Sequence to fold (294 residues):
Amino acid sequence: VPAAPPAPLGCDDPESVAAAEVAVNYINGHSHHGYKFALNGIKDIRVVPQGPNNDIMFLELDLLETTCHILSPTPLENCTVRSFAEHAVEGDCDVKMQKVDGTLSVLASKCHSHADSSEDILKVCPECPLLARLNNTEVLEVVSAALNDYNSKTTDSYLRLLEIGRAKIQYHPAHTVVTEFAVGATNCSAKEAKADVGACQLLPEDQSNFGFCTAVMVKLPSQDLQVDCQLYGHQVPAPHIPLLSRVSYPTGQDTS
Amino acid sequence: SVTKRPVAEAAQHDKVPRPVGFVPPPPPCPGKIRHFDI
Fold:
């Protein structure tokens, strides 16, 4: 009598969780923009045996954005999942994997990320500021002012904008714009940049030094700008992540 | 003579009696939510 087929894998089985963790590390390792994502839940898993010790696995994963930018060297386990009130961003991923002799590998992945709906946030937290579009004029003005302010005061390298990560605008009790953006060190000092900013280029890959800035601009009742930038120091870049070169948009991204 | 029992009756008879306190296993998927659901 042929052996009974193995019981279907449960979504919380250790084998499923191990596969999901490999998939999440792959997704973060191949993402070029935005923030690292953490596993929130395994929606479904399907195993298609290919032969002895050879399975194809299809996973449906539910991820949540963390506060770590994708270029941050912080290990994922130390990255805080952005809270619901901070206007969480969810990632839905379909991942095809192979398990051969116990070794897991990702064959393909397709993800779609989207911010939680404003209605959901305001229902629970009417005062919470909401995510703004990254090409919002106010957002672009604040990022530009913040980077200029930082570069005018730093004695280190002149920093260039890589991408805006997220931005929120609130109008009560004060008109405030909060932005987060990724920056890269250039081959100029801030002083040299004053003379000829056009000559300031991002450092080449083997010397690259990225960082992350947060800026808070209070517009009313009186204008006040706070900027904080942290450079990560040179990281040995993963071979498949090209330099960041464009602003990303929060209204959902598809990555494959 | 062979008579066909109505399904409900058959199902009633065929239902395996479950031990008292039997808790069906949780469905295999979806799995647990680690942070919050949005």
Summary: DSSP finds one helix and no strands in chain B. The first helix of chain B runs from residue 7 to 14. The two ends of chain B are 60 Å apart (CA to CA). Chain B has a mean pLDDT of 74.
